UniProtKB/TrEMBL annotation:
Superkingdom of origin organism: Bacteria
Localization annotation: Cell membrane
GO biological process, one term: transmembrane transport
Oxidoreductase among keywords: no
Residue stretches in coiled coil: none
Provenance organism: Thermalbibacter longus
Transmembrane segments: 9-27, 107-128, 140-162, 193-211, 248-273, 293-319
Family to which this protein belongs: Belongs to the binding-protein-dependent transport system permease family.
Name by which UniProt lists this protein: ABC transporter permease
Pfam families referenced in this protein's UniProt entry, alphabetically: BPD_transp_1, BPD_transp_1_N
Alphabetic keyword roster: Cell membrane, Membrane, Transmembrane, Transmembrane helix, Transport
Protein's membrane topology: Multi-pass membrane protein
């Protein structure tokens, strides 16, 4: 197992280099650059920008160099542990990420816990009671949930509960002003969480339920499950102890990406509800052509995907003793 993990970690190095080259090349293909965006914003405010100002800014940010030299400059700084400085916010990229990351982890973490707490039991129940009215209802819910786009669901929830009924806040994590007191702050925080958490949870609920149902249906037909029942074991012991453990393997594949979900969050939901997290940061940085921030977010995502995949493979061996890595 140790040799396998070491090999996987070493393979991450060329993969990350490839991801960085492709991402950097794609950013350079986007029309405009950070200086162009800055000049457009300055002109809209009435400021006069000369060509000398443009060249000075391009030289200041190293944009006057060929693209391959810009990439090597960025790579050299990364190897020294420096992710660069945000062109838009004039702060180190690490500081920008530290400010936004906790907000995304709070939203994604709460949504993930609620999703798993609902999806896994319902998936098991749907499989155990296959072809019952409950199974048909849950299957119909799954098809509807998978078919509805997340952005549409978030917009509908926003329109209904924040605009029409005006029951919940429209945006952000907290109100600009809250009456002093613990309960006032708690209620304000909870009300701001409801719509984003509901949007993320409903969007992912159907997928987890379908995976769990399909895995359980395959497992409960196995011979060792019939043998366990023939021994007279209680049904809940057969399902939870013998069947569910083996039915967790497909779910573990999805849980391998939990790290990415916790760090990157939902770009769509964060953008719609103006949630100050990593997803909204990625959207704003792309619009502003803030290359250092975009590169940091993409590379962080790539690292987490690789680590998540590796953790999934390790968990396979823990859940299923038959799985061995030589």
């Amino acid at each position: 197992m140790t040799a396998y993990i070491v090999r996987r970690l070493l393979w991450m190095i060329p993969l990350l280099v490839g991801v960085s080259i492709i991402t950097f090349a794609m950013l350079k293909r986007i029309p405009g650059d950070p200086v162009t965006v800055m000049l457009l914003e300055s002109r809209s405010s009435g400021r006069v920008i000369t060509e000398a100002d443009r060249e000075r800014l391009r030289k200041q940010y190293g944009l006057d160099k060929p693209a391959y030299l810009q990439y090597f400059d960025w790579l050299g700084e990364v190897l020294r542990g420096n992710l660069g400085t945000s062109i838009r916010m004039k702060q180190p990229v690490t500081e920008v990420i530290k400010q936004r990351l906790p907000n995304t982890m709070k939203l994604a973490g709460v949504s993930l816990v609620i999703t798993l707490a609902i999806a896994l039991p319902l998936g098991i129940l749907s499989a155990v009671r296959q072809y019952s009215w409950l199974d048909y209802v849950l299957t119909a819910f799954n098809f509807v949930g998978i078919s509805i786009p997340q952005f549409w669901l978030a917009l509908m929830l926003l329109y209904l509960f924040a605009v029409e009924i005006q029951l919940l806040p429209v945006r952000g994590m907290r109100s600009p002003y809250v009456e002093p007191g613990f309960w006032n702050h708690l209620v304000d925080t909870v009300t701001h969480y409801i719509l984003p958490v509901t949007s993320v949870t409903l969007a992912s609920l159907a997928g987890y339920m379908r995976y769990q149902r399909a895995a359980m249906l395959e497992v409960i037909r196995q011979d060792y499950i019939r043998t366990a029942r023939a021994k007279g074991l209680p049904e809940h012991v057969v399902i939870l102890k013998h069947a569910w453990r083996n039915a967790l393997i497909p779910i573990i594949t999805l849980l391998g990406y939990v790290l990415v979900i916790l760090v990157e969050g939902s770009i769509v939901v964060e953008a719609i509800f103006s949630w100050p997290g990593m997803g909204l940061l990625a959207v704003d940085s792309l619009q502003q052509r803030d290359y250092p921030v975009v590169m940091a977010i993409v590379m962080l995502s790539a690292v987490l995907i690789m680590i998540g995949t590796l953790l999934s493979d390790i968990l396979y061996a823990i859940v299923d003793p038959r799985v061995r890595y030589d």
